[in-house]
Specification:
The complex is a heterodimer of chains A (194) and B (188). Chain A is built from six helices and no strands. Chain A is mainly α and 194 residues long. Chain A has one domain: SLC41 divalent cation transporters, integral membrane domain (Tetracycline Repressor, domain 2, Orthogonal Bundle). Chain A is elongated. Chain A starts with a helix and ends with a helix. Chain B is mostly helical and 188 residues long. Chain B has a single domain, classed as SLC41 divalent cation transporters, integral membrane domain (Tetracycline Repressor, domain 2). Chain B is built from seven helices and no strands. The termini of chain B are far apart. The chains are: A mainly alpha (194), B mainly alpha (188). At the A-B interface, helix 1, helix 3, helix 4 and helix 6 of A face helix 1, helix 3, helix 4 and helix 7 of B. Chain A: It is found in: Membrane. Chain A: GO terms for molecular function: monoatomic cation transmembrane transporter activity. Chain A: Pfam families: MgtE.
Chain lengths: 194, 188
């Protein structure tokens, strides 16, 4: 009876922890979505100047979220199971994970540029393959480097503070990824002089 | 590079490519229906937060279950599994709190930014947010759980294999439920 009561109480405490940590993360994420929406609405000039860009933006942003939520979750699992020490040092296994995330991020950015070109042709616009590839390659490199640093250090920081990164890192990273993704697209369009 | 690097690349490449293709098509689909959505901007405004919520909660369930499977605190099976039920019900509570917050933001956006305060439309929009949000999240969580269990049992890391796919599933289900329920309320 006492064991059963103990199990129920432990379950309740876990539920409270999930609800508390995830709700805060979700509210920040939804609010961050509004910031990303404002940045996107300020990009109408760029979207008009670069045909095909709009069709690729949702995929580019989603890919940033997917690659780095996954990277954050793997780091979190390794911290939980003791394969990584919670230290602010990006080397060894953590560096290997970071390089894998970087490689995936770059290859997917280039793929998205090519897919956007093909889809835009079918939709009747006439994009430049060179422009789309250049924009997404530059934006991919910049955003990958920034996201690796933010994700890894946030994971370790959360874990050291006793917060389960699994409850927080997904919403947090997708939101930051949206904002950084859009800003790096603007920077790469400007860098290419378009 | 050692085993970890190549394993992540091998497992991540397939699911990310699939996700990119589906997302490009979703982007094209949204763009093709832009005129209908622009006619009611408040409806357009609720799409990103509903997408974010479904994707976020999907990634949380996958991340939590993966860690629990590796630690052995939850068995990777679907039947009579209290751990799975506890995770799903906790995240549905988070979903309810988040749709309430999105409803509040949408009312503020409609009233302050768009200058529209039509009680009838607002009631329908809030109902759409509640119903579409909860339906989209429920099915995303179920898919996340099923795919995580299946992936772990097959020897693949759900953090790498399922995570990219679940955000796309979340987008698809939330956009689909929002459009379907808007249609039921006669707004699209």
């Amino acid at each position: 009876m006492l064991v059963r009561a103990g199990q129920v109480l432990a379950g309740m405490s876990e539920v409270r922890k999930i609800v508390k940590e995830s709700t805060v993360a979700e509210i920040l994420s939804v609010s961050g979505g509004v910031v990303a929406g404002i940045i996107l609405s300020s990009m109408t000039g760029i979207l008009e100047r670069v045909p095909g860009l709009l069709a690729a933006i949702p995929a580019f942003l989603n890919m940033r979220g997917a690659v780095f939520s996954s990277f954050g979750a793997r780091i979190s699992t390794r911290l939980h199971i003791g394969e990584l020490e919670p230290k602010y040092r990006l080397r060894g296994l953590a560096l290997e994970e970071a390089l894998a995330a970087f490689t995936l991020g770059i290859s997917q950015s280039v793929l998205i540029g090519m897919l956007a070109y093909v889809v835009s042709l079918f939709m009747g616009t006439s994009p430049s393959l060179l422009h789309l590839l250049g924009i997404f390659a530059i934006a991919g490199i910049l955003s990958n480097v920034i996201m690796i640093v933010i994700t890894f250090y946030s994971d370790v920081w959360l874990y050291r503070r006793g917060i389960d990164p699994n409850n927080v890192i997904g919403p947090y990273i997708t939101t930051i990824g949206d904002t950084i993704g859009l800003l790096t697209i603007i920077i790469s369009v400007e860098a290419m002089g378009l | 590079m050692t085993r970890v690097f190549w394993k992540v690349l091998k497992e991540g490449r397939v699911s990310l490519t699939l996700a990119a293709v589906v997302e490009i098509l979703s982007g094209a689909l949204l763009q093709s229906r832009l005129e209908a959505l622009i006619s009611l901007p408040i409806l357009l405004a609720i799409v990103p937060p509903l997408n974010d919520m479904a994707g976020d909660l999907g990634t949380i369930v996958v991340a939590r279950l993966t860690t629990a499977f590796y630690l052995g605190s939850i068995e990777p099976r679907l039947r009579e599994n209290k751990g799975l039920r506890m995770n799903l019900s906790s995240l549905m509570v988070v979903c309810v709190l988040t749709v309430l917050y999105i409803s509040m933001l949408s009312t503020l956006y409609s009233t302050l930014h768009l200058g529209v305060f039509d009680a009838g439309i607002l009631f329908r929009i809030i109902s759409i947010i509640m119903l579409a949000g909860m339906t989209g999240v429920f099915f995303t969580l179920v898919c996340g759980t099923l795919l995580s269990v299946a992936s772990f049992k097959k020897g693949y890391d759900p953090d790498t294999m399922v995570m990219p796919v679940i955000t796309v599933i979340g987008d698809f289900l939330s956009i689909g439920s929002a459009l379907l329920i808007s249609r039921m309320f006669g707004l699209v």
